[in-house]
Amino acid sequence: MRYEDTPVSENIEDRRGMGGGGGGGFAMGGGGLGIGAIIVIFAISYFTGISPQVLMGGADMIARNSQSYNQPAPASRQADANDPMRNFLAHVLGQTEEVWKTVLPQQTGLNYEPATLVLYDGATRSGCGGARAAMGPFYCPIDKKVYLDTSFFRDMKTKYGGGGEFAYAYVVAHEIGHHVQDLLGILDKVDAAKERVSQTQANALSVRVELQADCLAGVWAANANQKWKILEQGDVERAIATAQAIGDDRLQEQARGYAVPDSFTHGSAAQRSKWLMAGLKSGQVDSCDTFSR
Fold first, then answer.
1. What three-state secondary structure class fits 218?
2. Is the pTM of this model over 0.90?
3. Of 77, 122, 159, 293, whose CB is crowded by the most CB atoms within 10 A?
């Protein structure tokens, strides 16, 4: 992936190496699960489609998170010109900002407001509650920030068979896709709809949200490539391989030997690659209507 001559974003909070999520930062309350922690866990689940069980990660983590709401988030460390990961992500985020500030008004009539990318290691705090590496990257619509523990990129190589710069960029663009959905009012509508349906139907809605974010990541890639020629040979194939590797069916089969479609929250391998390619081929937001197709 070529990115050196593309825009650089300054909307990055780098909390790596600064603590703020685990250890002494979350004192054990001793009172079990507070109602605030439970609400936050299920709010994140509704917004992101992540299983509540994964978000909980055990009663100990939840209890510690419930103590953190009134504490300020860790300060961002200064940018390091010699940090290749931050430099790469600043370019990717800058590309998404430049693309969406043009594409969103042209294709939807709405202005684009940039999101902030928070880099952390281990654990930190978000507007949606505690963020931990095991949760994977996620977008919090409450504070308009994307949270990313960069160890996820290592997991993409070792656990999911993916990796490569464009695959990493796809992950960031997928989360920015959720931000675009937020600006379009889609997340609020889906959240309201989930309250009126069964868990199985709510899961199906989560799948539609995630597939649309995949498609929007493709829209970014198409427009970024048209503008800066970012794609190199093999980039698209690696991104598709990554999308397939993190399909619900693949993950469930790896974890327990079989898949349960009614429990899917992100979509199958085939669905994820299909919608990523839909956005990549068209470059158009209206090609990403996963709710009626």
1. helix
2. no
3. 122
Integer CA distances (angstroms), 156 to 144, 153, 163, 185, 214, in order: 25, 5, 5, 31, 16
Calpha distance 56→117 (Å, rounded): 23
Strands 116-120 and 145-149: parallel
Q: Which regions of the chain does DSSP assign to beta strands (E)?
A: 12-14, 116-120, 123-126, 129-132, 138-140, 145-149
List, in order, residues 6 or more apart from 240 with CB less than 8 Å away: 273, 276, 277
Q: Can you list the positions of beta strands (E) in 92-206?
A: 116-120, 123-126, 129-132, 138-140, 145-149
Length of the chain: 293
Which amino acid, one-letter code, is at 29?
G
Q: Are 163 and 153 in contact (CB under 8 A)?
A: yes
Q: Which amino acid is present at 234?
A: G
Domain residue ranges of the chain, discontinuous segments joined by +: 12-288
Q: Is 184 exposed, middle or buried (0-12, 13-18, 19+ CB in 10 A)?
A: middle
> For residue 14, what are the β-bridge partners?
119
In which residue are the tokens 């505690």 written?
130
Helix 235-245 × helix 269-282 angle, to 10°: 150
- Contact by Cβ (8 Å): 148, 156: no
pLDDT tens figures, 42-82: 555 555 555 554 454 443 444 444 434 344 455 556 656 67
